[in-house]
Design a protein that fits this description.
18 helices
């Protein structure tokens, strides 16, 4: 181990799943920082709670306290950096206090915006939420986010909307660092082994992500009905949803579900193969901490339609890297899809430029940014 190498403890409260959104961020950072010579220990949920998982009620209302007691057994004071997401270790950070260990609170995506998106969807009648969610389990993660930021020496985040939010909540800008995420290197390796110009199904679109209200599912369903009215032969593929084919087909009731395909759990190579069979990627999300699926789809040469949430607002140039539509508008989403179906030159231009933009966000770039940030803030705290 180099004398300049950092000892880093990363604690994820997500299950160990390289294909999962939150877990994928930890896998990226673990791989990138190890490659730069740092000693990284990454703990996932099942590693932290080896004896007994927190019960449902505890998980809803007291997870940071339970997680902090478990993480304390890892001797965090032995590390140069302790990194955890979404406020989960704020009690531990408070007990550790300021010292030689840099305490990093990573904001995977501000819970404030996710909760607001869900409540907006409930007000529009697109989702039902319980009184418990409205008053307790919805607002609590927002409190954990802020407690984590206030107890930490450094807040890292992946979109500038969240940076503005932190500043609004009184977190000094100099304690925050915006760092965009990266395309997974395994995806780039799979791309390099694939055809340079893969054959794509005409008038085909793919969605890849969890099937939840904040992802804009209600607007996708309505938009697709409009698309089919103009292009009855269009095909939509749904992947990474965590839902059964029957449940997803039910969401598109009244439409020709033979043209709506559902992918089961896939590997990265299979994800790339699926992306390369389609012309468009649809990402009408209402709230995102970044939007890795969008970046990865662009790297695979898909022309994308997205909103300004997450990386859509930070990294994408409208009409250049992707088409940008207003959030929560099925009509705008349908119009953008049909526009790209109907204009092959536009579709190919946007796909090519989007791919060049996405490929710049490498794991090496990500790991270097975190390394430099950790070292600079650690040295600043030591002075």
């Amino acid at each position: 181990m180099s004398p300049s190498a950092l000892r880093i403890l990363m604690v994820s409260l997500s299950r160990n799943d390289p294909m999962g959104g939150a877990s994928r961020v930890f896998h990226l950072l673990n791989e990138g920082l190890l490659a730069r010579g740092h000693a990284v220990t990454t703990i996932h949920r099942e590693d932290l709670f080896t004896d007994k998982e927190p019960g449902r009620l505890v998980g809803r209302v007291a997870l940071p306290q339970v997680a902090s007691r478990a993480a304390a057994r890892l001797a965090p004071e032995r590390y140069d950096v302790v990194f955890s997401a979404s406020g989960m270790l704020y009690p531990l950070f408070g007990r550790m206090g300021a010292g030689k260990t840099l305490r990093v609170h990573h904001l995977l995506g501000a819970a404030f915006f996710d909760h607001r998106a869900t409540m907006d969807e409930a007000a529009r009648g697109h989702v039902a939420v319980s009184s418990t969610y409205r008053t307790l389990t919805g607002p609590l993660p927002t409190k954990w986010d802020l407690a984590g930021a206030r107890a930490a020496d450094l807040v890292t985040l992946n979109c500038r909307r969240d940076l503005d939010y932190m500043i609004d909540q009184g977190i000094p800008a100099e304690r925050c660092r915006w760092i965009p995420l990266a395309v997974h290197p395994d995806l780039l390796a799979a791309l390099s082994a694939a055809s340079a110009s893969p054959p794509r199904m005409p008038r085909s679109a793919i969605w890849f992500g969890s099937w939840s209200d904040r992802k804009g599912t209600a607007y996708l369903v309505r938009a697709w009905a409009e698309v089919l009215a103009r292009h009855p032969d269009a095909t939509l593929t749904l992947g990474g949803t965590g839902m059964s084919e029957a449940a997803l087909h039910a969401a598109f009731a009244g439409m020709d579900t033979s043209r709506i395909r559902v992918l089961g759990r896939v590997s990265i190579a299979e994800q790339v193969a699926a992306f390369e069979r389609h012309e468009l990627f649809l990402f009408p999300s209402l709230s995102e901490g970044f939007g890795l699926a969008l970046l990865e789809a662009m790297a695979c040469g898909l022309a994308a339609v997205t909103t300004t949430t997450g990386m859509g607002g930070d990294l994408i140039r409208p009409e250049h890297d992707a088409l940008i539509v207003p959030a929560a508008s099925a009509t705008h989403l349908a119009s953008a899809i049909c526009r790209l179906f109907d204009d092959p030159a536009l579709r190919e231009r946007i796909a090519a430029q989007g791919r060049r933009t996405a490929e710049a966000y490498t794991l090496e770039r990500l790991a270097l940014a975190y390394e430099e940030t950790f070292i600079s803030y650690r040295d600043k705290a030591a002075r």
